[in-house]
């Protein structure tokens, strides 16, 4: 037996907000727009949303203070503004940080939760959530999870519930045209890790595997183009692959790469996708031991000749290293081991394995 649920209505393609945004009027008369300080203004996504809201006669307030790796303090500040203004729904515009923040803000607009209950529930129904992705990486536009920085736990953690699936998402690849080369690499690797981890997870299903293979096919074809200016056609493929990979992890969750990567982001300031890339090859070596047939299929989908070719590819686009102290190895391993990401991994993960992978990052 397996279960599949994907309640988000997805609109994909250039100008999809202008062409299909009338659905927004079904969510209410006043919106809270959640975004970061700059990129949504530069890439045209914020204007596309507000133009559609004006056309529909919907008012809005703007919260544009979401930082990378959003904090509990930030989402509480935005939710307080939403409650004060009596908003009916939330529109989150940006990469993973604004979309994840928007989900939690929608939740906090209808729930009184202390910092512990925020990550555990139970929850009442949040405000309706609309997402507009402007990077091709997180897949948050089609998932039921939001990642926040949790200082009480000393790491990044998920707020997750099926009620957090966005009601509607507008994925327009044109909004990614201004994304820098480094961020394009980071987000593409993040999307690829979603597809691969979901494909390998203990929780994988026949349906999630279909989406994972399709995501890898589209992302893999564009891997050689990372590191240089990327065409619209390539960005369309990367966004499509990223969205499909988001559908995958909405069903399966993530595995060891994410469980370990959060520590590198929280404590070392390494971007999420880059942290994933630094851990990717060690993860694939483990998977080759336990799931060789699927690993061979991955090389085929990514148009690679095998493990050595994959290692060369990852080293070319993410050459970063980090040297951890003995105490950091102990601390990061301790934080990783209790996570669902470890439980989802199709390998008997021990503290020694985690510590050795961290040590190999130097």
From TrEMBL:
Residues 7-173 form the Alcohol dehydrogenase iron-type/glycerol dehydrogenase GldA domain. GO terms for molecular function: alcohol dehydrogenase (NAD+) activity; metal ion binding. The keyword Oxidoreductase applies. Residues 184-308 form the Fe-containing alcohol dehydrogenase-like C-terminal domain. The keyword Oxidoreductase applies. Gene3D superfamilies: 3.40.50.1970, Dehydroquinate synthase-like - alpha domain. It holds the Pfam family Fe-ADH. InterPro entries: ADH_Fe/GldA (IPR001670), ADH_Fe_C (IPR056798), Alcohol_dehydrogenase_Fe (IPR039697). Signal peptide: none annotated. Keywords: Oxidoreductase. This is Alcohol dehydrogenase. It comes from Megasphaera cerevisiae DSM 20462.
């Amino acid at each position: 037996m397996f279960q599949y649920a994907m309640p988000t209505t997805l609109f994909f393609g250039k100008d999809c907000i202008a062409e299909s945004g009338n659905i927004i009027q079904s969510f209410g008369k006043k919106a809270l727009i959640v975004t970061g300080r700059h990129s949504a203004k530069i890439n045209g996504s914020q204007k596309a949303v507000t133009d559609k809201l004006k056309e529909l006669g919907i008012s809005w307030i703007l919260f544009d203070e979401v930082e990378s790796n959003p904090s509990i303090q930030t989402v509480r500040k935005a939710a307080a503004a939403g409650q004060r203004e009596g908003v009916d729904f939330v529109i989150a515009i940006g990469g993973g940080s604004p979309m994840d923040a928007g989900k939690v803000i929608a939740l906090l607009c209808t729930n009184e939760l202390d910092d512990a209950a925020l990550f555990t529930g139970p929850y009442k129904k949040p405000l309706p959530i609309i997402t507009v992705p402007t990077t091709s990486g997180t897949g948050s536009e089609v998932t039921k999870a939001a990642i926040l920085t949790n200082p009480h736990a000393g790491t990044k953690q998920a707020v997750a519930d099926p009620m957090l699936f966005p009601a509607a998402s507008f994925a327009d690849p044109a909004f990614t045209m201004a994304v820098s080369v480094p961020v394009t690499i980071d987000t593409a690797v993040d999307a690829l890790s979603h597809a691969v981890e979901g494909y390998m997870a203990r929780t994988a299903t026949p349906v999630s595997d279909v989406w994972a293979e399709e995501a890898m096919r589209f992302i893999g074809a564009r891997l050689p183009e990372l590191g240089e200016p990327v065409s619209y056609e390539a960005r369309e493929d990367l966004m499509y692959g990223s969205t499909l990979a988001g559908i995958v992890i909405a069903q399966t969750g993530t595995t060891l790469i994410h469980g370990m990567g959060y520590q590198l982001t929280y404590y070392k300031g390494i971007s999420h996708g880059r942290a994933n890339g630094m851990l990717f090859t060690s993860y694939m070596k483990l998977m080759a031991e336990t799931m060789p047939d699927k690993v061979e299929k991955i090389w085929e989908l990514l148009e690679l000749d095998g493990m050595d070719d994959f290692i060369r590819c990852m080293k070319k686009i993410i050459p970063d290293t980090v040297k951890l102290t003995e105490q950091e190895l102990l601390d990061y391993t301790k934080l990783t081991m209790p996570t669902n990401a470890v439980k989802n991994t199709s390998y008997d993960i021990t503290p020694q394995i985690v510590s050795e992978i961290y040590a190999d990052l130097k």
